[in-house]
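Structure ticket #2291
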Amino acid sequence: MVITGRLVVLGVAGVLPVLVRPEASTVAWWFVVLMVLAGTDALLAGSPRQVRLVREVTPTVRLHESASSVLQVRSTGRRRLRGVVRDAWVPTAGAVHNRHPLRLRPGDGSRLVTPLLPARRGDLPAGDVTIRSLGPLGIAGRQASHDLAGTIRVLPEFASRRHLPSRLARLREMDGRAAVQIRGEGTEFDSLRDYVIGDDVRSIDWRATARRTEVVVRTWRPERDRRVLIVLDVGRTSAIRVGQGTRLDAGIEAALLLTALASHAGDRVELVAYDRAARARVTAVSGSRVLPTVAEALSGVSETLIETDWTSLVTWVRTHQSQRCLVVLLTGLEPSVVEEGLLPVIGELTSHHRVVLASARADSVADAAGMPAPDDAYDRASRERADLDRAAVAESLSRAGVRVIEGEGPDLAPQLCDAYLTLKSAGML
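Resolution: structure written out below.
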């Protein structure tokens, strides 16, 4: 049995008879009257268990986008059901207005909509549906909770998709679908066309020219059907704060944008999230299904507070990628981690693959700790020292054959795609 504020008000009203007859028996009789009223009201309330519940949830939604949970409630009892329904969700689902008034006659139904605004990636489960049924007087009632399954899958936000149109336009120019034709080492032959003033004489096809009356030149298009392996580091350094999110969030944005661009370019994209083992993997997916599959795989990926085992990671890449490919490492440039973990084994990767390392940079040491930094001489000195250390590490990686990209969190994704397009236009994938 549950009680409402009306019963409390009646209890306070008992002060009046006590003032008229200030005896213990008056208090006792008033208490008995209240209990009888509350018990009778609860017995006359409709049963909160005699209902049929169906939950309909938006199956997938992107982070920070609105969704909804719809409850279909139908009364199967013989009494009027009057009360409140609470559609409970985990706090990160953002179900703020989840209490709904309920008034149902026997056999009637109602549709209750709870808005959701998820604040975390992954599968967010629903809680119990609690129904509180009140009696005619509204001073007491009955309550029951129903275990009703429901889950919403929250995909990464993919805020970097605003950079995709400009990169696709550049890709179309490289691919010859615009007015620009390119020539570069490793590019694929596309077609022949008449020579125009300004064409590179090295592109003249002399054999074809000999068979015609006009000079013709070869045109090329960027390489297609190349392999791109995106390695997302989910170890300890991925939890460092970068702007409004973490380094892992910036890495996911970069992985999604690169996946969308590379799949449009006709390349085969694979992905692995790794610390000491593969936490998520996407392989053998092509065409328009690549980006949704990658987003689904990354929706449940989170930071782990362990060091990434670079030796086992390199072994994993060499085992699963026998052909030459572009390996994109989305990780950090912390000197101690790179010098002790990545640098000793990076040569095994660069000897077989083209390697690009992309890192989201924290603004300061205090940013890495998740705290605001005072703008004083000590803080500026620590920033400069950290910048010098990262620059030294980047130089060591460059000498080992790694292309290093470092940028602020929101800028990392477009910078990585620009590097991919540069390599592709030069035929270096």
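Closing remark: The chain has twelve helices and 20 strands.
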